[in-house]
Amino acid sequence: MRTEKGFGRASSPSGASTGVHEALELRDGGARYGGKGVLFAVKNVNSLISKRISGMDVSGQAEIDRALCELDGTSNKSRLGANATTAVSLAVAQCAASERGCGLHSILGKGKIPAPMLNVLNGGKHAGNGVAIQEFIIYPLNFNSFSEALCAGSEIYHTLRALISKKYGSAATGLGDEGGFAPPCKKTEDALDLIEASISEAGYQKKVKIGIDAAASSFFSSGKYTVDGKKLDAKGLTDKYISLAKSYPIVSMEDPFHEEAFEDFAILRKKLARRVQIVGDDLTVTNVSRIKKAISVNSMSSLLLKVNQIGTLTESLQAASLCQRAGLGVVVSHRSGETEDTAIADIAVGIGCGQIKSGAPCRGERTAKYNRLLLIESELGPRSFAGASGLVL
Length: 393
Ligand code: PGA
Ligand code: ZN
Known about the structure:
Layout: H1 39-53, H2 61-72, H3 82-99, H4 104-108, E1 115-122, E2 135-140, H5 146-168, H6 188-201, E3 208-213, E4 220-221, E5 224-227, E6 230-232, H7 234-247, E7 250-254, H8 262-271, E8 277-280, H9 288-297, E9 302-305, H10 307-310, H11 313-325, E10 329-333, H12 343-351, E11 355-357, H13 364-380
Helix pairs in contact: 1-2, 1-3, 2-3, 5-6, 7-8, 9-11, 12-13
The protein binds 2-phosphoglycolic acid and zinc ion.
């Protein structure tokens, strides 16, 4: 996107474990790129969208996003494609920042650097290892700066690699979709033991906590959850989470149940109150009406925010502020199918939510976000690091 004084470029990511209520990612179908091409979405950007928003003022993000929603006219962006609208909406924001000669984060607000949640061991749809839980996250939050937190995360990640190599052989150190290792652990506890050992071996026992993203819809079928070779109902899975929270320093659990299980989320949240943050991702899909339901049922303590789940920046910011006004936390997140776009780093800083998920500290599409945060920290100073303040228990 170009204006007289500005330039903005953005891209939209994709997910392997998408929630059924997410906005539609428009793909071409047919043989080209195995059906995953995006020529229709690109055409929508260059024809319909371009025609509608050309001449509008890029400092009016909300008006442009409203125009995108009206032009689309569906409840899930299925006419234009949320991949088309996300990229345009974020390009508008980048263009507005460029017109003002500053970074995107500074036109969005507060300027608080989030603590990184690094997904270092992958399972579920992000790996082929038979581990049900999708993400095992290290959460370095007791540090004085983002750069120290990231350094600890990276040291732990490499310690984990050595431990996996020792236990399963070096062939088991291949990576899953988000850059975490994907060893053939037999049980959830095996994965957590490895992570706990790598945190302590790296010398960060008190400063680094653990999180999980179960992405439980992916192992839910006919009323049962299949975990570690057992079929559990919601009560059985609740007991399992409670016992994991007793045995390990877990402070965050995302999508512990399937995407319609508002009540089961609420039960777990109550049982783990003040100990574990319960995060809604597939449950709420950055969608204000689903978030309102989750708030009314008390399902979650924090929202996972992904711009492409809803399709515009304005709607994402509305989702975040709805949660923040209700006393809930927000975790800004990447997708398993990422690009090198760094807008989510700026969004996390701008809304001051204090938490970001961007995968393991490796591979360009993940490190791009962490590197962007290092750069922002060099501008704003280490005092702007959120530390543990974003975590809502
Ligand atoms: P996805 O996974 O991008 O594959 O949906 C990320 C997540 O579940 O948080
Ligand atoms: Zn998730």
